[in-house]
Amino acid sequence: MSGYAGDLTPAQAWDLLAGDERAVLVDVRTEAEWRYVGVPDVGTLGRAAALVEWVGYPSGAVNPTFLPQLTGAGLAVGDGRPVLFLCRSGVRSVAAAKAATAAGFGPAYNILEGFEGDLDPAAHRGRSGWRAAGLPWRQS
Length: 140
Description:
This protein is of the alpha/beta class. It has one domain: Rhodanese-like domain (Oxidized Rhodanese, domain 1). The protein has helices at about 10-20, 30-35, 65-70, 90-105; strands spanning about 5-10, 25, 40, 50, 85, 110, 135-140. The strands form 2 sheets. Strands 1-6-5-2-4 form a 5-stranded parallel sheet. Strand 5 (about 85), helix 4 (about 90-105) and strand 6 (about 110) form a beta-alpha-beta unit. It is globular.
């Protein structure tokens, strides 16, 4: 947990979002994942998740405008707002949390297990993570 505020389970992330109206959820998956897999729905908390790609698809290259897009999502360097990063399984979100922390955003947290979780023994996702925890989400 070096370089960012720490890791939260999906349930802990939801509790932080529900308990702190300044907290922001940033989904760093790709546009394809948002469209075809779904997105977390924090509308019941009176806000939307920010959708900011950490890496592009299919290139896998780090998004060169990631930090400016965080600012565009309403975050500001040094404002002290908790920022919770979510990806598919909790790997890209660690990198995003570290980059945000280094730039002065946050405290920045990684959401363990991500939206879909790791592969299970049958090479399927979905048995852990945001969706499996029963947290709100929607699909387009």
